[in-house]
Amino acid sequence: MSIGQFPHVRLRRNRHDRFTRRLVSENTLSTDNLIWPVFVTEGTNSVTDVASMPGVQRVSLDRLAAHVEPAANLDIPAIALFPITPTDLRDESGTEATNPDNLMCRAARLLKKEFPEIGLIGDVALDPYTSHGHDGLIEDDYVVNDPSVDILVTQAVNQAAAGIDIIAPSDMMDGRVRAIREALDATGLPNTRIMSYAAKYASAFYGPFRDALGSGGLLKGDKKTYQMDPANSDEALREVALDLQEGADMVMVKPGMPYLDVIQRVRQTFSVPTFAYQVSGEYAMLMAAIQNGWLDRERAIMESLMSFRRAGANGVLTYFAPEAARLLRA
Ligand code: PBG
How many CB atoms lie within 10 A of CB 330? Predict the structure, then answer.
């Protein structure tokens, strides 16, 4: 054997046994990293499937505790609540958003009482409440910024007063984080956290979510005048910088898998708590392939979640949260 015949460095050596693979593993995924989005609906004794999200359901409040209990038992740190507003309560200006006794606030009060340990995240935007499906108020066919922020502030304060621990503005209006922060402090809620949907893109991947909410059919036009252009990532850094200056405690990038590069840039640039939303369309995509037998269910789910950790995310909002927590425990 002549010198130089063998490679000195063989990266496969560390992959040879499970024990070295464990030792050299660079990232971890744990239940601590999971946030579960939950859809709530009016009525009683109601559990309905979301057609485009197999395995995901909308539940009425009397069924909510039973729905959330497994997640609480699995020690999932937080859930994110999304209300389905009955059509007759939706109007041009999203009035129901500011009702202190709306579905979201009632759900928050109920869950705070039943499961005081689990963190509650409240989405703040007008789209579940407007007859046009937009996240803000419309004047002359344009979603107007500052008047929308005024309503979002009331919505946020009501949610926090009802027991929401983390306000998550998903509306992409300018200046809303600062306005919400000031209002929370002025209302004696200085410990209510803000997780801003800082870099939220105008994405096709929200389709199944809009089906779940019943806002998809209502939506007039698109959200491109306020949500970000998928072509941009420098702009995502500006959005994040601004939200942090305005008082955001945590930031989010959304969608997730198509935007792993953005997650990585945000995390590396700011070193702040950074979250990713594996949105409804990503869930639908994976589930469609899984149900066809084209992907291995457990491996595809866990690999997709690990990719967020590798990109630098602290945690992931994912419809797979309970299943992932179960797999992590096994
Ligand atoms: C509301 C909101 C949306 C999602 C979360 N909050 C939809 C949208 O902006 O149209 C999407 C979540 C998902 O697709 O899973 N502003």
Answer: 6
- How many angstroms is it from 247 CA to the middle of ligand 1? 22
For residue 171, the ligand 1 atom closest to its alpha carbon is 16
Residue closest via CA to ligand 1's atom 3 equals: 206
**Which atom, in ligand 1's list, is nearest to the CA of 319?**
15
What is the whole-number distance in angstroms between the Cα of residue 230 and the centre of ligand 1? 15
By C-alpha distance, which of 317, 319, 330, 305 is closest to 28?
305
pLDDT tens, position by position, 154-208: 999 999 999 999 999 999 999 999 999 999 999 999 999 999 999 999 999 999 9
- 26 annotated as ligand-binding: no
ipTM score:
0.96
Domains in the chain: ranges and CATH = 30-329 (3.20.20.70)
For the chain (330 residues), the mean pLDDT of every run of 10, in chain order, is 84 98 98 98 96 97 98 98 96 97 98 98 97 96 97 98 98 98 98 98 96 85 97 98 98 98 98 98 98 98 98 98 96
- Which of 56, 170, 213 has most ligand 1 atoms within 8 Å of its beta carbon, as the pocket-test mutant? 170
